[in-house]
Structures are given as C-alpha cells and as structure tokens.
Amino acid sequence: MKEKKPDKKYDKIKNKYAKLLDLGWCKGYMALQYHYEEAIYEKNKIGPAPKIAKFSHKYYNEIQKIKNDKIYDFCWIGSIESSKEHRLWIIDFAKKHFTKNSIFINTDFPDDWEKLGDFDLTLLKVGYNPKLQNDNQSKEVQYRKVEHNLYYFTIMRQSKFTLCPRGDAPWSFRFYEILMCETIPIVNSIHDTYRTVEESLIDYKYLLQTSDKFDYDKSLIKHNTKIFNKYHLFKLL
C-alpha cells in the first residue's frame, strides 16, 4: 500500500488556527467518549479517538424518527447556573425574541425564578439537568438516551431555532444535538461551534445571537445535515 503523503496545506492552516483558537479544557468530554465507543462498535473497527466527534447511526436514526414539524419558533431547555457567565445572554434574548410559540425552560428550577413570558415553562419543572444527577459523569447520565430524554429532543426537533450557549468549556455538546435535531443553532460566538481545530475548519451554518433578524432558512438545515452525515458519522460497509 502506498504511503499517504502529508497534506502540507492542511497542516499549515491547522497550525495557524491552533495558535489563534481557545480550545479550552474538556475536549475529551465523557459524553463524546461514550458516543464514540458506540460508533466504533457499530463500525466494528477500533481506532484512536477522532479529532472530529463521532456518533453511531443507531443514535442518529433514533433522533430522526421524532416528528420534525417545526411548530415552535425558538427553544431553550438547559441549565444557566452551570455556566452563568456565558449563558446570561439567553435570558435577554428570550425576552426580546421568544414568541408565544416558543419554549424556554431553565432546568436549574430556582425557587425565586421570575417567569419571562408565556413561553417560559421553568416553574412547571419539566426537563432534565445532568449536572444535578448523582455520578453525573457516568454513561447513564452523559450519553443521554433518546427514549429517556424524549421531551428534550422532541422540542428541539420541532423548533426552528435552538439557543446554543457554550458550557463550562469553550464549546457546547448541545451543538451536535442541534445538528442531529435539524434545528438552526443560535450562538454567542463562532467559538461556541467547535471543540477542536479540525472542527473549526468545518463550514457549519448558524446564526449569532446579535443578528438583526432570524428568518427560518431550510437551506441551512439541509447544509448542516449534509455536514453531519459527512463528518460525524462513520461510513458503514
């Protein structure tokens, strides 16, 4: 077999970006490890952890089976306190842009929470917060089984846009879930859209929370779905 020649152009770009990008800690997030383990088991080929996150076709297909009729405009289901400094913007965004056909749930469920609007279901205490679970790094918590988190995935599948702030690392696992749910991510910064240098080079489509308008464009969904299938799923024989 002929030895593959190094791609000097790609390496040059990669090295340039590595100096500019703040990749932070937690690139080996446990949820990604559990999903990668399932993906390589499905592929039946063991290899080193990839520079681009991988998911199994089984997991992806389970999400695809959920109804995708886009009855909600915007959605957010998640913790704010877990990364308060980087997530406070979603409250102002919700007050400004969320409609009666939107869903907002702060899964910290604070007792003194003041309802943001008719779209805010926080006080109903629906939703799931992994950070509040015992052994929150376990596979049972981190893997996020679709059948056990059906409400979470259904709301995203049925939403045109999903807020995607960074978490306790300079990226968000939610970004991958958004791609699988075929909803348009709204982020605070381009740096919220990748975990590694390699992922930063992928042409994901998203909107910044500072955008002037939020028009639903199906072509963005189509593009991201193609991207996800190309980069985040192994090709099966």
Protein described:
This protein is α/β, with parallel strands linked by helices and 237 residues long. The protein has a single domain, classed as Rossmann fold, CATH 3.40.50. It contains ten helices and five strands. A five-stranded parallel beta sheet has the order 2-1-3-4-5, with helices on both faces. Strand 4, helix 9 and strand 5 (207-208) form a beta-alpha-beta unit. The longest helix is centred in the N-terminal third of the chain and has 14 residues, at 30-43. The radius of gyration is 18 Å and the shape is globular.
List the helices and strands and how they pair.
Layout: H1 8-20, H2 30-43, H3 57-64, E1 72-78, H4 84-87, H5 89-97, E2 103-106, H6 139-142, H7 150-157, E3 159-163, H8 174-181, E4 184-187, H9 197-200, E5 207-208, H10 218-231
Parallel strand pairs: 1-2, 1-3, 3-4, 4-5
Features:
5 strands; Rossmann fold; alpha/beta; 237 residues
Short account of what is shown:
The chain is of the alpha/beta class.
